[in-house]
Write a structure and sequence with these properties.
Number of domains: 2
Shape: elongated
Oligomer: single chain
CATH class of the largest domain: Mainly Beta
Distance between the termini: 23 Å
Number of helices: 4
Strand order of the largest sheet: 1-2-3-10-5-8
Number of strands: 10
Radius of gyration: 27 Å
Strand content: 15-25%
Order of helices and strands: HHHHEEEEEEEEEE
Helix content: 25-40%
Largest sheet: 6 strands, antiparallel
CATH topology of the largest domain: Jelly Rolls
CATH architecture of the largest domain: Sandwich
Length: 236
Amino acid sequence: MQSPLALVRDRASEGHDAAHAHDETRSTEFDALEHRVGVNLARLRAERQLSLDALARASGVSRAMLAQIESARSVPSIKVLCKVAAALKVSVAAFLRQHAVNGFEHLPADRSARVVTSNGRYWTRALHPDAEPSTAEFHELRIAPLHTEPGTRRAPGTTVNLVVSVGTLEVSVHDRRQLLATGDSIVFDADQPHSLRNPGDTEARAFRVTVNAETPPRWDVPQETHHDAPLAHSEG
């Protein structure tokens, strides 16, 4: 049987190991960020056929600093990124993306992902890049005549903005129904039971924007280890 002091030491060791693993994960994330910024900067500069010296003159950032950023040896400040972005005529976000480094991304219609369900009576097409998780999703919907499609309940805080482009749609949220004509829109919380129904005799079309719930921050709360706490004793 272990002594109370040994148990305290074991818990402290477990806490240290967990903190070390967390630090390693955070370090890996920073390394990935440095690499992404460097790769995007090198690509943007190459596409514009700019040398390091030319970009340094245009941005006011030293050649040495630009070389360090491209080789992932330095994480630039927001001020430095703003200067470089202005010289390259892109947004600061272009350095952080895995896609659309030029500020836009072309999504050809013949390459977009389509999902057909309910024996072909419900059809969706993604109108947003699916290369990485996004705070918002954009879809085109097609609903066959007299078809009802149940919606997928999402995490609390997720909202849906839907606009009818062709025909009519009836949106049900819990036991409340709202009929939408062409051009009408509706916003609702997607964590509730909901469905779409086409009451007409022709296909209805709509566009849906889903704004995903924000993930709450995970605060790093140091755990108490009680190294200096006296061991309890009984008075006899």
